[in-house]
Amino acid sequence: MGQRQTGFAVADAVKNMKNWPSAIILCGALLYATTLPAQPRCTPDAALQQWLLTQAKGWHTLLQHYPGLEEPPPLRLCRIAHGQPHTDHGEIRLPPMPAEELRLAAAHEYLHLHFRHHPNGRDEPFIEQLARALILGEPPP
Question: Which of 73, 137, 138, 57 is CA-nearest to residue 109?
Fold first, then answer.
């Protein structure tokens, strides 16, 4: 359905609504949805992904006693042009940064995926401290 057809369909739906407050909410939601920024393009980073997978094998024994730890979804790691490191539907997205910070950010986001269904996964100080310990080869907290 083209943009013009969509506009007519929305106009017809609004015209046929008997409850005008609902029509206003519908129009607001449609306006909001059409103005959302697009997700940044994500370019796979096979080298960093392989590094993270290799490290994760060694980290598993150090992490297994933590409550809430679970296997993360299949790892997909990619680079974005700008923004903050984050996960999006199981994909780790990292912006440009120095190599040391990049590895720390990759570990940090990977830990969020490991604890995604547990309160530890939303505990930023815990995740950051654990990521730093793993990267520096120190005993985890």
Answer: 73
Name which of 118, 141, 125 is nearest 72 in CA terms.
118
Cβ-contact 47, 106 below 8 angstroms? no
The amino acid that residue 140 corresponds to is P
- Quick count: other Cβ atoms within 10 Å of Cβ 23? 16
Per-residue pLDDT of the chain (141 residues), as tens digits, is 444 444 455 555 555 555 555 555 544 555 554 554 555 589 999 999 999 999 999 998 899 999 999 998 899 999 999 999 999 988 999 999 999 899 999 999 999 999 999 999 999 999 999 999 999 999 888
Q: What pTM was estimated for this model as a whole?
A: 0.71
Spell out the residues 6+ positions from residue 17 whose beta carbon is closer than 8 angstroms to its own. 23, 26
